[in-house]
Design brief:
74% of the residues lie in helices and 0% in strands. It has 17 helices and no strands.
């Protein structure tokens, strides 16, 4: 059974298929850049660079930061491009994704596959050569996890797809730390877990907004198979776990005052927003009343400011 709101009947009609079109060089370049999902890259780098500042207890070596950013960008872009190849059938049917390069036939599946593989090889070379082998290995594990575990095994089979598949997006915290220190430790593990608990509220809010899209292509995101109220309850539970975990960094890493204050304030604001969405979802499936994108945008702001605090703490925390 699915719960896709009052407009499901309108969504039962198949979407018109994008038609092949002639493209300029600019269009093709933009298409290849789009395959890399720049917004995802931005998010991953946001959780990499601040951790490098935290690991260095100050400003890390600029060359190391550049190499880590380039390698991370290539690795994330590789995973995203290959994900687009595998998911091109459902991307053509979803309103949120049907303007991507493959549904628009601006790039062929073979070309996109080659592009993704080349990016992955370059990422490994860059990280292994100019950062270290541990960071390169972690990036490769994250990429393979995203492609095999999430994209192939989980996404179309279980409501837990984003919970466990989202682990791939947690690796940048580890990569940023190991890039500076050359070894793993408990502080980046705490930040890894923060991102782990953050991912379901962030993704389920977006999936609630586009639940009809996912229902039409039989992807069992939680908002497709559960009522909005149940989704809201799960979001609240994960949000509490996220905030509690974020506060652990203070005793585990011996931070200054900047991080715990920021984590407490940001966490409180986010919890209020999560509870409000859950309250709005009680007894209704009307998305205009639930307003899930409010929580989605709040989650982006929360993670951004939290990791800014991670970077600032060793600089001004005392």
């Amino acid at each position: 059974m699915t719960f896709v709101g009052h407009s499901a009947s309108a969504q039962s009609q198949p979407l018109p298929q994008p038609q092949p079109q002639s493209a300029t060089v600019k269009d093709v370049v933009a298409a290849y850049v789009g395959l890399m999902k720049p917004r995802v890259i931005e998010l991953l780098l946001l959780t990499t660079v601040p951790v490098m500042f935290f690991a260095a207890r100050g400003v890390p070596d600029l060359g190391l930061v550049v190499a880590t950013v380039v390698g991370g960008t290539l690795s994330s872009g590789s995973a995203s491009a290959l994900n687009c190849v595998y998911d091109r059938d459902i991307d053509e049917q979803m309103r949120r994704t049907r303007r991507r390069a493959l549904p628009r036939h601006l790039v062929s599946p073979v070309a996109a596959t080659v592009f993704g593989i080349v990016l992955g090889v370059l990422a490994t070379v860059v990280l292994a050569t100019w950062v270290n082998w541990l960071s390169a290995g972690l990036a490769l594990v994250a990429e393979l996890f995203y492609l095999v575990v999430y994209t192939v095994l989980l996404k179309r089979r279980t409501t837990q797809n984003i919970v466990w598949g989202g682990l791939a997006g947690c690796f940048p915290a580890l990569i940023g730390w190991t890039a500076v220190t050359g070894e793993l430790a408990w502080p980046p593990v705490v930040l890894f877990l923060v991102v782990f608990f953050w991912t379901p509220p962030h993704t389920w809010a977006l999936a609630l907004r586009y639940r009809e899209d996912y229902a039409n292509v039989d992807v069992p995101m939680l908002p497709v198979v559960a009522r909005a109220e149940a989704v809201g309850r799960q979001i609240v539970l994960y949000s509490w776990a996220m905030v509690a975990t974020s506060l652990l960094l203070w005793p585990v890493a011996g931070t200054g005052w900047v991080y715990p204050v920021a984590a407490a304030v940001l966490g409180a604001v986010f919890l209020v927003e999560a509870h409000r969405m859950w309250h709005r979802a009680r007894g209704t499936e009307d998305l205009t009343r639930i307003q899930p994108m409010r929580l989605f945008h709040s989650s982006n702001l929360y993670l951004s400011l939290l990791f800014v605090a991670v970077a600032l703490d060793p600089l001004v925390g005392g």
